[in-house]
Specification:
By secondary structure, the protein is of the alpha+beta class. The chain contains 5 helices and 4 strands; from the N terminus they run αββαββααα. The chain has one domain: Endonuclease I-creI (Roll). It is 50% helix and 25% strand. Helix 1 crosses helix 3 and helix 3 crosses helix 4. The protein is globular, with a radius of gyration of 15 Å. The protein starts with 5 loop residues before the first helix and ends with a helix.
């Protein structure tokens, strides 16, 4: 990620606090870590992509017949962005903390056999993140 300046990082943190989703999950034995922002306007997700990289997707929201725009990054890129935004986060600071701890124990794109302890630690972080959301 290019050096984008503190103002842009602070602005992104506010967007993440209000419209972002910090996600950890497991599916078919693979662990996922993503950071997304979804909005009905394209301008803000596009601004995020232009300044921080990542991917931009659209989908039709059937309940409101609206196009929704989602910016998304995953794994280490998401961790780097959350690390940069961390001091500016309010609402999602604890979720970011759990996410960053999770990504610190995950070695991405390496084919390694995980021990039961490794699996349990990762699942504990996933559970912690979900339980934190339920409290909000």
């Amino acid at each position: 990620m290019a050096d984008v300046g503190k103002e842009k990082i602070a602005y992104l943190a506010g967007i993440i606090d209000g419209e972002g989703c910090i996600y950890l999950g497991e599916s078919k034995g693979k662990f996922n870590s993503t950071l997304t922002v979804e909005m009905a306007c394209i301008s803000v997700p596009k601004w995020i992509q232009d300044n921080f990289g990542g991917s931009l997707y659209s989908r039709i929201r059937k309940d409101r017949f609206k196009t929704m725009w989602m910016w998304r990054v995953s794994s280490k890129v998401a961790a780097n962005i959350l690390s940069d935004c961390y001091d500016y986060l309010v609402e999602k600071k604890l979720e970011a903390d759990i996410f960053l701890k999770f990504t610190s124990v995950v070695q991405y794109h390496q084919k390694i056999k995980l021990t039961n302890n490794d699996l349990n630690i990762r699942r504990l972080y996933i559970s912690d993140l979900r339980n934190n959301r339920k409290k909000q």
